[in-house]
Amino acid sequence: MTKRTVKFSIYRYDPDKDEKPYMQDISVDLEPSDKKLLDALVRLKTSDDSLSFRRSCREGVCGSDAMNINGRNGLACLTDVDSLPQPITLRPLPGLPVIRDLIVDMTQFFKQYHSIKPFLINDDLPPERERLQSPEEREELNGLYECILCACCSTSCPSFWWNPDKFVGPAGLLNAYRFIADTRDQATGERLDNLEDPYRLFRCHTIMNCVDVCPKSLNPTKAIGKIKDLMVRRAI
Amino acid sequence: MVNRIVVGAHYGLRDWLAQRVTAVVMALYTIVFALRALTLPEMNFENWRGLFSGGFMRIATFVFLACLFYHAWVGIRDLWMDYVQSTGTRLVLHVLTILSLVGYLFWTAQILWRL
């Protein structure tokens, strides 16, 4: 089988060596087994081990290898390398500080995620076996619990770019609704109080970049709409 | 002072809801206004003036413009919140926006009740 050559233009920045970031044009010969963009990057790293990027599960579960691929956020491990126009332009996720090459500092993202208390709050004594839900109640959690926190959505959201310190962002808000929607959770009121702020929830202007880029096909905008619905129902 | 990030001003829902309600009011007024304007016997200054000097249309137009100004307040405030990072500058812009819109509202009343 003939070897495929793929051209890349990759954002490079090593704070110990480089004064400022630059785009590096580089090509790599792929093996027939290299199907995904992540395979190509791993192949590239065998020839240039200074190239830095995060990776772990290589099957869209861990969310480590989120990056900006030809101008659109996505997971390298889920993106077919042959489907991309060349040169493939790779940049780190936009809006977050760059640590090195394609690796960004996710502190702000996780700070917002933790601010919505992403855990079940229930003061009742734990039952002998488990806290049960009806199939309908469990159904409500579909499309919410699958979030892998890759940050593709939040870093494609202009509202998060402008106010990352105050706006929770689509990933955080999707997870906030995941616990608001959970019938086993007892802190619905406090969770709504926590979000009823012109910045934390209402910076969302329904731009829907989050829905467009989510590699798990989730819909943070819909979840945000449901939080607003509950707030209206509570207030009116 | 330590630069703490503070959030929790509880007016997010009120303004978000008000923006939607005012949008509905403006849409309804647009329909009423279009029907009234299109059914004028003739489009001239006297008829146009008469359209707004009737009691219903005068009040409806005032309510429409009041809704427009409230709607604009939320929208423009969102712009300042998104793009102006300095709190002092933002406060000045908020105050100027409010003063302008309140001024427009009184101007509206003056025009409508002069007809």
Task: Please give a structural write-up.
- The complex is a heterodimer of chains A (236) and B (115).
- With 236 residues, chain A is α+β, with helices and mostly antiparallel strands.
- Chain A has two domains: 4-104, Beta-grasp domain (Ubiquitin-like (UB roll), Roll); 107-235, Orthogonal Bundle (Fumarate Reductase Iron-sulfur Protein, Chain B, domain 2).
- Chain A is 30% helix and 15% strand.
- In chain A, a hairpin with a 2-residue loop joins strand 3 (66-69) and strand 4 (72-75).
- The termini of chain A are far apart.
- Chain B has four helices and no strands.
- Chain B has one domain: 3 helical TM bundles of succinate and fumarate reductases (Up-down Bundle).
State the share of residues found in helices of chain B, binned by percent. Answer: over 70%
CATH superfamily of the largest domain in chain A: Alpha-helical ferredoxin
Instruction: Report the C-alpha radius of gyration of chain A, rounded.
Output: 20 Å
Could you list the spans of chain B in which at least 5 consecutive residues all have pLDDT below 50?
none
Topology:
The complex is a heterodimer of chains A (236) and B (115).
Chain A: E1 4-12, E2 22-30, H1 37-47, E3 66-69, E4 72-75, E5 88-91, E6 98-100, E7 103-104, H2 107-115, H3 135-139, H4 158-162, H5 169-180, H6 188-195, H7 209-213, H8 220-235
Parallel strand pairs in A: 1-5
Antiparallel strand pairs in A: 1-2, 3-4, 3-5, 6-7
Chain B: H1 12-38, H2 45-53, H3 55-83, H4 87-112
Helix pairs in contact in B: 1-3, 3-4
